[in-house]
Every structure is written in C-alpha cells, then in structure tokens.
Amino acid sequence: MDMLELVLLLLSVSVIAGFVGAVFGIGGGVLIVPALTLLLRIPVRVAIGVSLISVVATSAGASAAFVRDHWTNLRIAMALEVATVSGALVGAALAGVVSPRVLEGLFALAMLVSAVEMLRRHERHETQRQCDRVARFLRLGSSYPSESGPVAYGVRRVPLGAVLMSVAGLASGMLGIGAGVLKVTAMDSVMGLPFKVSSATSNFMIGVTAGAGALVYLARGDVSPILAGPVALGVAGGALAGSHMLVRANVRLLRPAFVVLLLFVAVEMAWRGLRGG
User: Fold this and answer.
1) Rounded to 10 degrees, what is the CA torsion of 50, 276, 107, 111?
2) Is the pLDDT of residue 122 over 60?
C-alpha cells in the first residue's frame, strides 16, 4: 500500500468514525483503534495515541454547533471534567506499564449492563424535572431548544455520575476511546438528562478528556504525526456532519441504535481482552 492509498483509507475510516462519534457522543476511537490495529497492523499503543487525537478532533468538529444551539450543558461538563481528566491521566500513565486486558473485560461488562438498562427503561418524554439538592447547589439545571420554545430539565445523582465519569476517563486514557458510551449512559440513565443533551454534552467533554490523555502519549512518543494528521482531518469532517444530524434526529430512533452500539463495543472489548489486546 502506497502513501496515497494509506491516506485515503485513513480519511475514509475517520470520516465514518467521526460521524458515528458525533451522533452518539462517544468519540471516534471505538472504530479508529480496531481499524488501525486490525487493518493496518499498527502497534496498539500507537493506535491508542492516534485515536486520542482523533477524539479531540471529533469533539472540536461537533461541540461547536451543539454549544451554539444551546444543547450542551456547560456547567455539567465543567463540573464533571475534574473526574474525567483525573481518570484519563491515570489511565494513560498505566497504559505504558500495564496490560489493558482486565480493564477491557470490565469495560465490556459495563457496556452490557448499560445496554440492558437502556432496553429495560421505557421511553421517557423530555419534560421538565426538578433538580436534587446537589444539582440545585451547583445550579446544573438548564433547558434545551424545541419548536415550542425552551424546555427545562433537572439533574440528579451528580456524585454517582462523577464516579462513572472517572471510570470513563480511565477507559479513555488506557484504551484510546472517547468513553462517551459511559458518559452518555451516566448522564442519560443516572443523572436524568435528555438523551440529546447527554450526547451533546458528552461531545464537548470527550475532547478535554482525550486531550489530557493524549499529552501523556505524546510525552512517551506513542503518537505518529503521519497517521494522526489524516485521521484528525477525517473525524473532524465526519463529526461536523454528525452534529447537524443529531439536532434533527428522532430520540425514539436514536435510543435503539445506541443500544446496538453499546453491544458492539461490549463484544469488541471482550474479544480484545480474550485475545490479549
């Protein structure tokens, strides 16, 4: 494969990964890491480093539109980033010395549990909710736009959400994924945010989380600029397209697709863990 073919392949895969990552708020690493390791035989640590750069690009391409259109809850993002960035730094440091097999297995289990939770829950209407005590103190309640005007929503169980965000950051730093599946699940199922708000807020958060982990990989020399350039360009373009689709999408159609994606990630992570990475 010559350089032009490599660049075109990277761009194609990256556009798809960025689009999927933006629509579901998960970052493109779920597809980038297996694509680089299985298709191009890139060493896994280099693939993880490049993937983290791609997640930053996904966030940059998607979150601007979400923030502009008032879908992103910036106060929640800033409050929870302390937990995710801390987890990402620890995970990225551990990735240099520890095999990720155990974490991959636990992550696969977490995805299965999340998928079951999503399937068991009845579709809820995105209507006004009251904040609990912690959320009221932090003033995390907000609203999202609709055709009839802003719709208010409340927030709950912030401490539990922060714990899950720490796990998401750890997974992001170790495995090179945005870990948005955990973030969206935490905000949607645990904290009670509307699905689109969860996805939009996750898109903003994953860039900061992945950026923290990427700094550790850059310091170790585990990021290839030749690979990172076209991957970042592709995911940014795909993410921009995905962000425009999300604000017009039907939540009733998004939720089943999200469950399928959770199961896909679970199988992928379990398989990688059994194979030893």
Assistant:
1) 100
2) no
